[in-house]
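Action item from last meeting closed. Structure (389 res):
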């Protein structure tokens, strides 16, 4: 197959979307498919066997760290030149809209994937007036596609409840050989605990942004004075978080990759994940593969792979004291922690990237095979569903 991938974010930015796309590009190369990526400028010219075409960007008004390609830029020339069998728009906002429009003009089938709960994030940021306009806009974009993919069953149900059509779950995998309990070592334990290797060590990994609710972990440290915390990642909230956790009990590592990230996970005792608007939660699955008991909000994509009381513990997503008590329960009950860790590892081992991405290739094939059976018009931006004609 010839696959054109249109993404609003790519390297050097590091997040779950980019991680998933990199796994996909490696998989396409292994399976012998031909692909091209249209993305914001600033990344590599090639990744795996795929050419990456970069476009100039502007800051996204609601989230300046996110830079988006200007919507007036046309993808027509690149799509005509590449001649794809299918166009996959990843988390479409601006560039994805232009690419979808041009793909329709060229008669190409379109797959769209939904990765980020932007309306939910807007609500968390206090921008309630923006929630419904954002949801209508995203629904309008996605309902142009022949197939919409999302990371989890919880996300699928939410999208369908808000009028998104043709929605299917495209889950995520984990490299269970890289992320493994055997990566545990004393040097990383010393580094991440600030030299207090015998103290209980909590770990968070991800982008440091308001919607992740990392600040909730301050209450955990206040209630459990013996505990140390390591925060892996970077983002706009880092300066405020460094001030909030400035008592010397927290280590900030910045972004970690590869074996460094795997060793960081394995060095900890408990993985904590306070965010309640995750469409999946790749880092949770990586922590589980690393043999960590997980404490996460009972919300969103983690419900697909964290079984409460079996492979992790879930707390009421709007109850900060419940987070504190759930972490306390894991730290105070060694038998529980060991059982959760073992079950977490077992659950993660069943989720390989190879199986997940082969399923995506099958979805591509099905969309290509059925593309000629119906044509769809571009719906007006009024939230109306796209109709077959």
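Sequence:
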């Amino acid at each position: 197959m010839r696959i054109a991938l249109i993404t609003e974010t790519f390297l050097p930015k590091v997040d779950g979307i980019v991680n998933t796309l990199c796994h996909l590009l490696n998989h396409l190369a292994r399976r012998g498919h031909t692909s091209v990526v249209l993305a914001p400028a600033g990344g590599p010219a090639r990744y795996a066997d795929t050419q990456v075409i970069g476009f100039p960007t502007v800051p996204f008004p609601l989230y300046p760290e996110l830079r988006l390609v200007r919507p007036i830029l046309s993808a027509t020339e690149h799509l005509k030149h590449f001649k794809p069998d299918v166009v996959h728009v990843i988390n479409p906002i601006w560039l994805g809209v232009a690419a979808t429009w041009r793909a329709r003009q060229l008669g190409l089938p379109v797959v769209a994937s939904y990765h980020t709960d932007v309306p939910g994030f807007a609500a968390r940021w206090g921008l309630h007036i923006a929630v419904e306009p954002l949801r209508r806009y995203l629904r309008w974009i996605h309902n142009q596609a022949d197939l919409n993919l999302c990371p989890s069953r919880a996300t699928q149900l939410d999208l369908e409840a808000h009028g998104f059509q043709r929605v299917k779950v495209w889950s995520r995998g984990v490299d269970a050989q890289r992320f493994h309990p055997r990566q545990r070592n004393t040097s990383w334990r010393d580094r991440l605990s600030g030299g207090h290797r015998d103290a209980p060590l909590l770990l968070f990994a991800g982008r440091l942004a308001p919607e992740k609710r990392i600040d909730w972990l301050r209450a955990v440290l206040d209630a459990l004075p013996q505990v140390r915390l390591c925060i892996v990642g970077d983002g706009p909230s880092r300066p405020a978080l460094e001030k909030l956790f400035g008592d010397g009990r927290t280590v900030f590592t910045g972004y970690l990759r590869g074996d460094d990230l795997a060793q960081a996970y394995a060095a900890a005792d408990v993985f904590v994940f306070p965010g309640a608007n995750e469409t999946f939660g790749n880092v949770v699955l990586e922590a589980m593969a690393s043999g960590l008991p997980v404490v996460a909000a009972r919300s969103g994509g983690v419900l697909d792979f964290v079984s409460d009381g079996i492979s992790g513990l879930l707390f009421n997503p709007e109850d900060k004291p419940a987070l504190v008590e759930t972490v306390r329960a894991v730290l105070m009950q060694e038998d529980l922690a060991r059982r959760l860790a073992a079950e977490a590892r077992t659950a993660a081992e069943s989720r390989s990237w190879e199986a997940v991405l082969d399923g995506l290739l099958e979805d591509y094939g099905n969309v290509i095979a059925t593309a000629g059976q119906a044509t769809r018009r571009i719906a007006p931006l009024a939230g109306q569903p796209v109709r077959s004609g």
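Note appended to the action item: The chain has two domains: 2-173+353-373, 181-349.
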